[in-house]
Amino acid sequence: MHLLFADDLKIFAAINDRHDCVRLQSSLDAVNLWCNSNGLKLNISKCKIVSFSRKLFPIHHSYTLEGQILDRCVEFKDLGVLFDCKLSFSKHITCITASASRMLGYLVRNWGNFVNLDTMKTLYYSFIRSKLEYASIIWSPMYINSIVDLEAVQRKCLKYMYFRCYGQYPSRGFDHSILTDSLGIELLKLRRERFGLTFLFKILQNSIDSPFLLSKINIRVPRPGLRRNNTFYVTYSRSNVMSRSPINFICNLYDVCCGRCDIYFDRLAVILACHSEQRIGMS
Fold this sequence. Notes:
The protein is mainly α.
C-alpha cells in the first residue's frame, strides 16, 4: 500500500515475517524502476525507514534503493506532525507546547496596551491555538500529563487576558472554569472532541471522499432487547494506542451521545449540541 501527496510517497505494509519484508523490498524496487524509466531521480539520502510497533523485538530488515541501504529512524515529521515509532505522539505534543509557549511569550511582550478582548482572542487563535490544534485528530493525546500540558499553555494565555481585561491577575489555583466562561473560550479537550465528531460526520455524509477511512468504520446492526444499542462497533483495545486511534476515538465519542441524536439524519449542529449536553451531564 502507498500514500502519495505532492512529491512525497510513503510505502507501507504489515510485517509479520521475513516474507513480508521481501514483498516490501519488491515494492521499493518497482517504484525505483518506474522512476528510472520516467527520468525521475530519487534523493536516496532523504528516503527513510521507520517501523511502527509496540513489540519489544520487532522485525527489522535492511531495505535498499539502488544498492544503498536506507537509513532507519525512530521518528519523522510528516506534514507538520511528528510521528514516533510507538505512535504515542509524546514528542510531537512536547514540541508544539514548547513552540506555542514561545509564541505566547512573544505576544505578551508585544501586546502593549491592548485591552480589547476580541483583538487578544484573535491573536491567540491565530498564533497559539492554531499550533495546539493542528491535525489533532491524528495525535489526540492519550495520557493525562499530555492533556494537562496542552491546557496549561491556554491557561497561561487566559490568565494574562483576564488581567488585561479586569486589571487583576488570577492567583495560583484560580478556578479555570471562571477563566473560560468569562472570556468565552472552550477547553482544548472539548474542541478536539468536536473536531472528531465533525470529521466522523463528514466521512459518513461523503463530505470527505475517503473510501479507505469509510471502510474502517464498523456500523453496528441494532439488536432488540439490549439496554443500549451503539451506532458503531469498536473492537476491544488492550492498549491506549489502539483505543485512542483516530477511528476508534471518534466512534466512541459518538456512541456516548448516540441516544440523543442520529448521525445519519440530524444536522451537524444538532450532534455537536447533543455532545455538549452529554458533557455537561457528566460533569
